[in-house]
Amino acid sequence: MKGLLKRVSLLILSGAVLSLILSCGSKERGSTAVAASAGGEVTKPASIKMIVDTVMLIPEDGQQQLADKYEELTGVKLEIVQPPHQEYTRKVQLAFSSGDIPDVVQMAEQDYVSFALQGAFVDMDPYYQASEVLKSIPAEYIDSNRVGGKLYGFSNEVGGGVVTYIRQDWLDKLGLGVPSTWEELVAVMEAFTTGDPDGNGLNDTVGYTMPGIRANNYARDFYQDANPEVYLKDGVWVDGALEPEMKPALERLAYAYQNGLLDQEVFTNKTSTCREKFYSSKAGIFAYWAGNWNIKLDDMVQQRNENLDTVVVPIPAIKGSYYSRRVPSNLSITIKAENPAGIFKYLIEYMHDGGEGQMLFTHGVEGVHYAVENGEYKTLPRISDPKNLFIKAFISPELQLNPWTDPFSVDGRITNSIAVMNGSAVDSTLVPPSPTLAQINADLQVLKDNLIAKVMNGEKQIDQALAEYKAATDKIGLPQALAEMNG
């Protein structure tokens, strides 16, 4: 699978954690799994404990009602543990190191491979192969999660991606079309920066805002055929910052920044900062997630600009560029689970069953998260924020793994933005583990940031900055890390 990846951040488990994992008897559970699926008899688990990140609905939005409804429908008690997002990886690691290992854990791609290769998870392939329900899921969605040929994780949805959004009303006011090349994008950025697109008579707008300078997904218009991270290129893992495509990418970033077309606070921006600037008409172009975010961006811009007929539109990737589709998070069954076959059938298979399970884990509970009036399905306001509608329970309605007849109508802005993103999307790929990369990754990211920032600020010429970057990465061991990944 052709791959490009985002940030590499592998978690290497400590010896104590690894010993604890292995003491749980993964070999024994693996053989039991095969026997259970071959025999066709699956025992229903009495309960399932799972740790999930904030992609699951939060307690304040009816998480317990979801768990209660699940138990009512399946007869299985579901215990959901949901640490704060910023502490998620650390909490999962603590769960393994303390021995309080759940039955199911949600893993992002950064940690999934490392945990899987150290024996933390059950190979679910026997259950998947025996499932009639899951045969309708496209095989590539399953196979992309294999590690060494084994299926240690099952995605909750298709991977999403970032798309470039632009203020259509600003284009219309200035008589501009949607940019399709770098040259046209530069012209639009210049007009958005100097042409008073908001009509307030002040010089207070900028063409483009983005969070940081190294995010391969948020800065696609500038990187285009380059990727600043470690990624798979023609079957070989390379450091994209040292590939030939990086030099013209740095030239584009430097030009936009030094000419004031790119947000001057780009080095310190967060995604929330960029959203606020976009909402308040301080910036006219912003790359962000396709799907439901198209609605949020559009609605918020209109709320902040009363009586303004504003349309936020996603645009196709400009010539020479692409959009990056991320590896989705996985649900993995841990080797601590007493009944992995039952967990797979009554949780993972159930949430993709094309029926009541998929309905529950997508749209939540009737009367809590949605209502049915005269046969029409309507989403209800969020419990924690009644000004906004409920979005999803766990699976994004627009990113279903298993094709099904969803009784809800999907806003055209959602489907359109995803279609635009998919039109030139390249899939990310799972990152092979490297002990050296895990040790040097934090330093590597600092070196990348310094390289890009010095060029953008005009502090260093590109060739000099790249030479210094290569010398520094050689010194900390990047060649060894790449050798481990390619070995």
General description of the model:
This protein has 487 residues and is of the alpha/beta class. The chain has two domains: 15-158 and 327-402, Periplasmic binding protein-like II (D-Maltodextrin-Binding Protein, domain 2, 3-Layer(aba) Sandwich), CATH 3.40.190.10; 161-325 and 420-487, D-Maltodextrin-Binding Protein, domain 2, CATH 3.40.190. Helices cover 41% and strands 14% of the residues. The protein contains 19 helices and 17 strands. It has a five-stranded mixed beta sheet with strand order 2-1-3-14-6. α17 (435-456) packs antiparallel against α18 (462-476). The longest helix is centred in the C-terminal third of the chain and has 22 residues, at 435-456. Residues 1-19 and 24-39 have low confidence and may be disordered.
Produce a short descriptive summary:
It contains 19 helices and 17 strands. It is of the alpha/beta class.
- Beta-strand portion reads 5-15%
Question: Which term fits the overall shape?
Answer: globular
What is the makeup of the main sheet? Answer: 5 strands, mixed
Structural class: alpha/beta
- The CATH architecture of the largest domain can be named as 3-Layer(aba) Sandwich
Helical segment count: 19
Low-confidence stretches: 1-19, 24-39
Task: Indicate the radius of gyration in whole angstroms.
Answer: 24 Å
CATH class of the largest domain: Alpha Beta
Distance between the termini: 18 Å
CATH topology of the largest domain: D-Maltodextrin-Binding Protein, domain 2
Number of strands: 17
Let me know the average pLDDT: 90
The portion of residues assigned to helices is: 40-55%
Spatial order of the strands in the main sheet? 2-1-3-14-6
The CATH superfamily of the largest domain appears as Periplasmic binding protein-like II
* Count of domain modules: 2
